[in-house]
Amino acid sequence: MSPTPAKPGGTRIPSRRTVLRGAFTAAVVTGTAGALFPLLDRDPAATARPAPAPGPGSGARATAEEFAEMYRGREIRGTATVVPAGAPADDRVALAAEPVTEIRIDGRPLHVMRRADGTYLSDVRHYESYPTLLETARAAVDELGSARLAPPAAHHM
C-alpha cells in the first residue's frame, strides 16, 4: 500500500477509504440522533401526569372516561376506570394506577388494549391506535360495517 500522495504544498490528500468511512460515521450518528430526538425531546412534566385521584366517598376507583351513544346505528358504551396504586381491585392488588377499560358494541364486549403511550387499540382495528376509547369504539364500528362482534370465547381450564 502506497502512502497518500502529497500536494505540492506538503499537505496530504485523504484517501477515498478515509472519506467514505467519515461519511458513513456521520450518517450513522445523524440517523441515530434523528431516531432518538423524539424520545429525548419530551417534556417530562407533560408525560409524567399522575392519574386522577378518586374523590371523597367514591371508593377506590375514579372514572376517567365514560360514554354512551348511537354511532352509525350501533349502540356503543365504554368506560375507563382508574384503579389507584395499592387499591384492591377484584381480589387482587393493583401495582400502579392503570385504567380498566370496557367497550360494548350492541351489548357485546370489544377487547381493548392500552398501549404504553396511552393510546388504545382493539381486536377489530389492531393495526391502528386511537387517543380515546370513544375514537377506538367508533373505528371498530366503521371497520365492522353491518357485521356483529363475535361473542366472547369461553375460557376452558
Q: Which blocks of ≥5 consecutive residues have pLDDT under 50?
A: 45-60
Number of helices: 3
Q: Write the element-wise H/E pattern from the N-terminal end onward.
A: HHEEEEEEEEH
In whole angstroms, the N-to-C terminal distance is: 72 Å
- Biggest β-sheet description: 4 strands, antiparallel
Task: Give an overview of the whole structure.
By secondary structure, this protein is of the alpha+beta class. Helix content is 26%, strand content 26%. The radius of gyration is 27 Å and the shape is elongated. The chain starts with 15 loop residues before the first helix and ends in a 13-residue tail after the last helix.
Secondary-structure blueprint:
Blueprint: H1 16-40, H2 44-47, E1 62-71, E2 74-83, E3 88-89, E4 92-93, E5 98-105, E6 108-110, E7 112-114, E8 120-122, H3 133-144
Antiparallel strand pairs: 1-2, 2-5, 3-4, 5-6, 7-8
Briefly characterize the structure:
By secondary structure, this protein is of the alpha+beta class. The chain has helices spanning 16-40, 44-47, 133-144, and strands at residues 62-71, 74-83, 88-89, 92-93, 98-105, 108-110, 112-114, 120-122.
Question: Key features?
Answer:
157 residues; 26% helix; two-stranded antiparallel ribbon; 8 strands; alpha+beta
